């Protein structure tokens, strides 16, 4: 992923800042329920896009929402204008951005896979976190699911729990969680890739998935050990001695 932000949101997601895309409220809530237990009272979301996921965290003492794309940042400034505890800013990881005033938790949803040197970027993310705080990542899973959509939006790779742990360890972070999530989404995406149809997600299909499949997925997550999924959830602790240093 390169520095420079204009149009970056569209390139990374296949959506335009103006259009918003298909709504996925149940899926966002599913992500929130998995991630929020690991998030402290002050947070930074990197690559927050239009702020749809971050909007669930406006109860935090401090919430920084950021994106490399200035158009997306302007959308978020308007979205969160009524929340004095929320700051929207342009944040370019490719240019080495980090916060002057660190937070308890950095969240990056579908961000790390856009960088060739992912361990270096993860180490950089940790510099925006106070010692003992957490970095929470949600990344696409399993190279068997890599298809046209991944190529089009600039994914260097998809992860497994093992490769996610390895990246975190190279970045000098303690691994708390690294596991697959969204079993049914992974199966559906695998079938789409095999059939050559995993290009641009269609609004109607996304809506049906959100209404029907996500509630079942949440039940399966509670009652079964999930061996496979569309994504990997990673939670990592920054050393108490200070920000992580890459080996």
Automatic annotation (TrEMBL):
Residue ranges, annotated region (Disordered): 1-22
The organism's place on the tree of life at top rank: Bacteria
Bias (Basic and acidic residues) ranges: 13-22
Pfam families on file: Methyltransf_23
One GO-annotated biological process of the protein: methylation
Keywords: Methyltransferase, Transferase
Matching InterPro entries: SAM-dependent_MTases_sf
SUPFAM superfamilies: S-adenosyl-L-methionine-dependent methyltransferases
A Gene Ontology molecular function term of the record: methyltransferase activity
Name of protein: Class I SAM-dependent methyltransferase
Organism listed in the record: Nonomuraea terrae
């Amino acid at each position: 992923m390169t520095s420079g932000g204009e149009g970056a949101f569209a390139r990374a997601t296949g959506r335009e800042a103006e259009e918003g895309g298909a709504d996925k409220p149940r899926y966002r809530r599913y992500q929130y329920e998995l991630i929020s237990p690991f998030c402290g009272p002050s947070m930074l979301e990197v690559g927050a896009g239009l702020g749809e996921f971050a909007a669930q965290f406006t109860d935090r003492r401090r919430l920084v929402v950021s994106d490399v794309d200035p158009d997306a940042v302007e959308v978020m400034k308007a979205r969160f204008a009524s929340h004095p505890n929320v700051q929207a800013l342009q944040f370019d990881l490719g240019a080495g951005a980090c916060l002057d005033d660190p937070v308890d938790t950095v969240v990056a949803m579908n961000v790390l896979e856009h960088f060739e040197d992912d361990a270096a970027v993860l180490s950089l993310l940790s510099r925006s976190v106070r010692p003992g705080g957490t970095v929470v990542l949600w990344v696409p899973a399993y190279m068997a699911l890599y298809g046209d959509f991944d190529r089009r939006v600039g994914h260097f790779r998809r992860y497994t729990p093992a490769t996610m742990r390895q990246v975190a360890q190279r970045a000098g972070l303690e691994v708390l969680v690294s596991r697959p999530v969204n079993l049914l989404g992974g199966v559906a995406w695998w079938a789409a890739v095999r059939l050559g149809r995993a290009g641009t997600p269609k609004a109607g299909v996304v809506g049906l998935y959100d209404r029907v499949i996500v509630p079942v997925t949440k039940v399966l997550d509670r009652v079964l050990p999930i061996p496979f999924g569309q994504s990997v959830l990673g939670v990592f602790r920054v050393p108490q001695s200070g920000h992580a240093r890459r080996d």
